[in-house]
Design goal:
It is built from 15 helices and no strands. With 388 residues, the chain is mostly helical. InterPro entries: MCP, MCP_dom_sf, MCP_transmembrane.
């Protein structure tokens, strides 16, 4: 995640620092990285000399855009690491969100309740593979999702800074940048998220035969490609793969906005630049992880109901799993009517909080560590070239 910034997003001087300590420049965030990078390749870059090899030109272009490239790589790895760490809780959260209320559990085999009890059942029935079930497709999805989110956040901040002329982006503009980044990332990767949710539920032991041709125990045998084909052919093609997308975007936009905003705000107080050389490495790591954990937990409390609606809509095609909603509004009405607002709309909150807290903490920390490492490696390469 980006480092805290109280300076202009249009700054023209990217920061340098030791990756073990905070930057001296508190404004060294993704917005600056995006703003200082060249997004367009000029004709002069492509054809400045006939004798210049393609490899040399490509290296020059990558050097000019190193901040964006580093951000993209670091963002993808941060997402993959954070989701793998909490894969069992991610799967459990989905199961708890989409299973029927306890009052309607009959012979369907649905028996997931408390967090630790459910994790024990998952381990007993499926072992380590059960904990990691669906993580492969989750990583495939989160790599581009996280990379796009981090990179586009910086780009949006840069654009909004130029448009507004503000030397320090106001809170509404920073929230807008986060919302734009979240929506863009969701739109690009949503089908993978839907298929992952289907696979997590299909293999959870809650499957029952359905004469209506919806969800059945046979779906537990489908992999990522098989489930994608099933949804595409039986639920209206691309429209089926994007079932619940707008509800997801509506929920993700404020979540991502709050995540970035709260994290950047916390860093100004928990990790001020004045502490860069006065605290130990373990304390620095702990402070960084704390900022991410608090940001993720706080954001989730406000946006969890949107996540519940998203999952309900994603598995609506599984006829044995849930009612067939006519959109997000119908789903909200049904949930509140049958389960109540707090119990229904906040179903799965506890495992989600347990999951999000370490996940966002790891994501922030991994992102900044990888980004700083790549930047340091780039600086070392430049120094070697100068010597040569």
């Amino acid at each position: 995640m980006p480092t805290v910034s109280n300076t202009s997003s249009t700054s023209t001087s990217p920061p340098t620092s030791h990756h073990h300590h905070l930057r001296a420049d508190a404004g060294a965030d993704i917005a600056i990285g995006a703003a200082t990078s060249t997004f367009e390749i000029s004709e002069e870059d492509l054809d400045h000399s006939e004798s210049t090899s393609f490899g040399t030109r490509l290296k020059e272009v990558m050097s000019d855009n190193s901040a964006v490239i580093n951000t993209f790589i670091a963002g993808g790895l941060a997402g993959a690491a954070s989701r793998t760490v909490v894969s069992p809780l991610e799967r459990l959260k989905i199961i708890l969100q989409v299973q029927a209320s306890s009052s309607s559990l009959t012979s369907s085999g649905q028996a997931y309740g408390g967090v630790w009890e459910s994790l024990g059942r998952m381990w007993k029935n499926e072992g380590w593979r059960g904990f990691m079930k669906g993580n492969g497709i989750n990583v495939v999805r989160i790599l581009p999702y996280s990379a796009l989110q981090f990179t586009s956040y910086g780009a949006f901040k840069s654009i909004l800074g130029t448009w507004s002329g503000e030397t320090t982006l106001s809170t509404p503009l920073r929230l807008t940048a986060g919302a734009g980044a979240g929506i863009l990332a969701v739109a690009a990767t949503y089908p993978l998220d839907l298929v992952r949710a289907r696979l997590s539920v299909a293999t959870s032991g809650m499957a029952i035969k359905s004469v209506s041709g919806g969800f059945s125990a046979e779906d537990a045998k489908l992999g990522m490609v098989g489930m994608t084909k099933k949804v595409y052919h039986t639920e209206g093609g691309v429209r089926g793969l994007y079932r619940g997308c707008w509800a997801t975007a509506v929920g993700v936009a404020p979540y991502v906005s709050l995540n970035f905003y709260i994290y950047e705000s916390l860093k100004t107080s928990i990790l001020p630049s004045s502490l860069s050389s006065s605290i130990s490495e373990p304390e620095l790591i702990l402070r960084k992880l704390s900022c991410g954990a608090l940001a993720g937990a706080t954001s989730l409390i406000f946006t969890h109901p949107f996540d519940v609606i998203r999952r309900k809509l994603q598995v609506a095609g599984m006829a044995s799993m849930s009612p067939q909603y006519n959109g997000a509004i119908d789903a909200i009405k049904w949930i509140i009517k049958t389960e109540g607002f707090w119990k229904g709309m906040y179903r799965g909150l506890v495992p989600n909080l347990i999951k999000v807290t370490p996940s966002i903490a790891v994501s922030f920390y991994t992102f900044e560590t990888v980004r700083d490492l790549l930047a340091a490696m780039g600086e070392d390469d430049e120094e070697e070239e100068k010597i040569v």
